[in-house]
UniProtKB/TrEMBL annotation:
<keyword id="KW-0560">Oxidoreductase</keyword>
<dbReference type="Pfam" id="PF22725">
    <property type="entry name" value="GFO_IDH_MocA_C3"/>
</dbReference>
<protein>
    <submittedName>
        <fullName>Dehydrogenase</fullName>
    </submittedName>
</protein>
<dbReference type="InterPro" id="IPR050463">
    <property type="entry name" value="Gfo/Idh/MocA_oxidrdct_glycsds"/>
</dbReference>
<dbReference type="InterPro" id="IPR036291">
    <property type="entry name" value="NAD(P)-bd_dom_sf"/>
</dbReference>
<keyword id="KW-0520">NAD</keyword>
<feature type="domain" description="GFO/IDH/MocA-like oxidoreductase">
    <location>
        <begin position="147"/>
        <end position="293"/>
    </location>
</feature>
<feature type="domain" description="Gfo/Idh/MocA-like oxidoreductase N-terminal">
    <location>
        <begin position="13"/>
        <end position="139"/>
    </location>
</feature>
<dbReference type="InterPro" id="IPR055170">
    <property type="entry name" value="GFO_IDH_MocA-like_dom"/>
</dbReference>
<dbReference type="InterPro" id="IPR000683">
    <property type="entry name" value="Gfo/Idh/MocA-like_OxRdtase_N"/>
</dbReference>
<dbReference type="Pfam" id="PF01408">
    <property type="entry name" value="GFO_IDH_MocA"/>
</dbReference>
<dbReference type="GO" id="GO:0000166">
    <property type="term" value="F:nucleotide binding"/>
</dbReference>
<dbReference type="GO" id="GO:0016491">
    <property type="term" value="F:oxidoreductase activity"/>
</dbReference>
């Protein structure tokens, strides 16, 4: 795979596609690298950002520090000063932008879902394999130190034989039926609903901590059937809506049963319209000698039960130096890391991958693997049967040990 030679004076040129919340977060993560990961020897240079909205382009320059901003993402990819590309655009642009970046030989960091569906994701994956570049997919929850600790316990055999896994990704970001009918609710532009938007995170976590998911069956429901159409040109879910309603074309809620390659079983459900939870993204792993439980809303805690421990029931492990990359951000247990820190770790893995020419960050193969589970789940929604998950060839990183940076 292609990469750049590390150099303490190196100014890695960054191009950004889409200046929304996630684009701003990518930008802050790049800027944080010299502080938290100084050994990389890189001071990212924010070269150019693309967004069709003029106000967003102004923000890219005035607030985020990009040298310039353009309306067309193709200018970002074609710019000879851009070494890497961050793709934070809506789902329906992911395939076009990612394939173009791959064909231009430019490593990219893309948000999930990687494509609107498995077909988009396969095209991205195949373009990357042909180009021989490194990439990163935005599976940021992998990087929580508590998840790193859980993975060590599971993969090290401390929980014994894994018997079952439970996951939930429950949110309320679309719970208001008066919220506008943005692109997120359209099959053509978003693909699936919570299957791709939220469950892709949970499925990647389950595979990262436990192992490959081999087969799945699913059910789904659209709870809010129609929504008011947005004003002209508006795509953000916070925008004002008109009075006319249109149909919601993808699912608000989904639930999966699945089996792992090693015979363990799992359940996972997700909602974007749940009343109560805001971002309850949880993973529980149970084995013959113990179990672990984690919830993103308590990011820095891991509940642990191991046979033979003194505490009768779960002990709360507060993440500390020695767990994942925690020590780069906080000096001791009890002082919390945050969501933005997870994206900084993600940026570091991506940049390290580029510098070394080695796939360290979550790869497009990992993105395709999650999309393939969603594909099997959607087949199950059509016929009610169990479906095998297609195997993915390529640079899968979830079976490997956590990379040392």
């Amino acid at each position: 795979m292609t990469g750049r030679a590390p150099d303490a004076r190196d100014r890695l040129g960054v191009g950004l596609v889409s200046v929304g919340w996630m684009g701003r977060l990518h930008s802050r993560a790049y800027r944080a690298l010299p502080d938290h990961f100084p050994e990389l020897g890189v001071h990212p240079r924010l070269v150019v950002a693309a967004d069709p909205v003029e106000a967003a382009r102004d923000q890219a320059v005035d607030r985020l520090g990009y040298e310039r901003a353009v309306a067309d993402h193709r200018e970002v990819i074609a710019d000879p000063e851009v070494d890497v590309v961050s793709i934070c655009s809506p789902n329906f642009l992911h395939r076009e932008v990612a394939v173009a970046a791959a064909e231009a030989g430019k490593p990219f960091w893309i948000e999930k879902p990687m494509g609107r569906d498995a077909s988009d994701s396969r095209q991205i994956h195949d373009a990357v394999r042909s180009a021989g570049i490194v990439t990163s997919v935005g599976f940021n929850y992998r990087h929580a130190p508590a998840i790193q600790r859980a993975r060590e316990l599971v993969r090290g055999g401390r929980l014994g034989r894994i018997t079952n896994v439970r996951g939930s990704l429950l949110a309320d970001y679309s719970a208001d039926p008066a919220a506008p009918l943005t692109w997120r609710f359209e099959r053509e532009r978003a693909g699936s609903g919570v299957l791709g938007d939220l469950l892709s995170h949970g499925l990647d976590l389950a595979q990262y901590v436990v192992g490959r998911i081999a087969s799945v069956t699913a059910l789904a429901e659209t709870v809010i059937a129609t929504r008011p159409r947005p004003g002209q040109g508006i795509i953000d879910r916070t925008a004002a809506a008109t009075g006319e309603h249109g149909p919601v074309e993808n699912e608000d809620y989904a639930a999966l049963l699945f089996r792992f390659d090693d015979g363990a079983v799992g359940t996972m459900d997700s909602s974007r319209v749940m009343r109560g939870p805001h971002a309850e993204y949880a993973l529980e792993v149970y084995g013959t000698r113990g179990s672990v439980r984690w919830d993103f809303q308590r990011l820095n805690e891991l509940e642990v039960f191991l046979d033979g421990q003194e505490v009768d029931g779960y002990a709360t492990h507060f993440v500390a130096p020695g767990d994942g990359e925690f020590a780069r951000f906080q000096p001791g247990a009890g002082t919390a890391m945050g969501y933005d820190d997870l994206k900084t770790i993600e940026a570091a893995q991506f940049v390290a991958s580029v510098l070394r020419g080695e796939q360290l960050a979550p790869s497009v193969a990992d993105g395709l693997s999650a999309a393939s589970i969603v594909e099997a789940a959607e087949a199950s929604l059509r016929d009610g049967a169990w479906h095998d998950v297609a195997r993915v060839d390529g640079a899968l990183t979830y079976p490997a040990a956590t990379p040392a940076l």
